[in-house]
Design a protein that fits this description.
Layout: H1 6-27, E1 34-35, E2 38-39, H2 40-43, H3 50-66, H4 73-105, H5 111-119, H6 136-155, H7 160-182, H8 185-188, H9 192-210, H10 222-237, H11 241-246, H12 251-275, H13 279-284, H14 287-294, H15 296-315, H16 324-353, H17 355-366
Antiparallel strand pairs: 1-2
């Protein structure tokens, strides 16, 4: 029996590399690459939402792992303990490394204050706590783990799909209120309260996967993938400032549903590539993508370190719109090397200890 759903690893790799790409683009000053009045870089900017795609994948995998489990207190604590073992070692190590580097270069940096709240996974909650920009998502991820058993408990009384829809509607409604100016919309944007629908998209995909739900035939081919990409881009467009300005008073609605629309499209693509053989599914299942997906968590944690290590070298790489490509390649190569050793030292023990958990990811579908 296979232990992993190969295209899922490919999607993880896509998300991780997307984060590096967008940060490489920003490092180069967000240049334009225009052809026939079309900015190519803006077209592919959606890959920069790799964090949101990770949330969908997380929702998918977590539901596969805990489906049919009775949400008792002991189970809940055991679940959190296992998730802690999975994400904490590499995260804590990266927090310490970045904090030391910041302290060396900034005497006013409150070392233990920042480290303390990161170790509690409250770095996205407590104001003034910042060690590495991408780390806010780790706090959101942990908070998702904390509320997931509550969702499962509610799902046992109605259905998991209805529970997800209920939670998501409440989340979007609250985000609308925040974006109207009643709360700090920028702060709430990085909290599980507003990000839950992204995890929810993955949960619903996992539920359909376990129930052997088939994609309707008209959408089982290339048309289905195209529709998924269109939904992703539609959600992404809803975030653009020009679009929000053009929508006037309705801007808060577009902004509040943009992430959900985008990740719904991603969840559909995810479900498509794991249930229907296709060219895209084969690409995502290759050994290269499987390897990068396996170490994608470490890639995400350490890619900022690669920028710091290569900073002076990257500044010397020419200029113009094409500078983004060598910057991306250099940072990616170094990050893969660091990510490989990080995975071996700080992550692999978890998979060796809980191999039986990984096998359950596709056991139900394989039958």
């Amino acid at each position: 029996m296979k232990e992993r759903i190969k295209p899922i690893d490919g999607l993880r790799a896509f998300a991780a590399l997307g984060v590096i790409w967008i940060h490489s683009w920003m490092f180069c000053g967000a240049p334009s690459l225009t052809f026939l009045s079309v900015d190519f870089y803006k077209i592919i900017a959606i890959v920069g939402n790799g964090v949101d795609f990770f949330f969908v994948i997380s929702g998918f995998c977590m539901y596969l792992m805990i489906d049919k489990k009775a949400p008792t207190v002991n189970w809940y604590l055991h679940f959190l303990f296992k998730r802690f073992l999975r994400i904490a070692p590499a995260f804590f190590a990266s927090v310490l490394v970045y904090a030391v580097l910041i302290k060396i270069n900034s005497a006013g940096f409150h070392f233990w204050y920042n480290v303390f709240f990161h170790f509690l996974f409250l770095n996205n909650v407590v104001s003034g706590v910042s060690i590495s920009g991408p780390f806010w998502s780790i706090g959101v991820e942990w908070h998702f783990y904390m509320i997931l058993p509550v969702l499962i408990a509610v799902g046992t009384r109605m259905s998991i799909v209805r529970a997800v829809i209920l939670f998501s509607m409440a989340s979007i409604a609250f985000f609308c209120i925040a974006n109207l100016g009643y709360f700090d919309g920028l702060w709430w944007e990085n909290q599980i309260v507003t990000r839950f629908p992204e995890f929810g998209c993955g949960i619903i995909a996992a539920y359909f996967f376990l129930e052997h739900k088939k994609i309707p035939k008209p959408f089982s081919g290339i048309l289905g993938l195209v529709i998924g990409f269109i939904m992703m881009y539609l959600g992404r467009l809803m975030m653009f400032t020009p679009v929000l300005i053009a929508t006037g008073k309705a801007a808060f609605i577009f902004k509040s549903i943009s992430y959900t629309v985008m990740t719904t499209g991603f969840a559909f693509i995810l479900y498509h590539v794991i249930t229907i053989p296709s060219f895209l599914a084969r690409i995502l299942s290759t050994k290269v993508f499987a390897y990068l997906g396996k170490i994608s968590y470490s890639i995400y944690l350490w890619h900022s370190l690669s920028f710091l290590i290569l900073w002076n070298f990257l500044l010397k790489i020419g200029s113009g719109p094409f500078k983004v490509i060598p910057v991306f390649l250099a940072v990616t190569l170094l990050t893969i090397i660091i990510g490989h050793f990080s995975y071996r030292l700080l992550e692999s023990f978890y998979f060796k200890k809980f191999t039986h958990i990984r096998r359950k990811l596709i056991a139900s579908y394989a039958r």
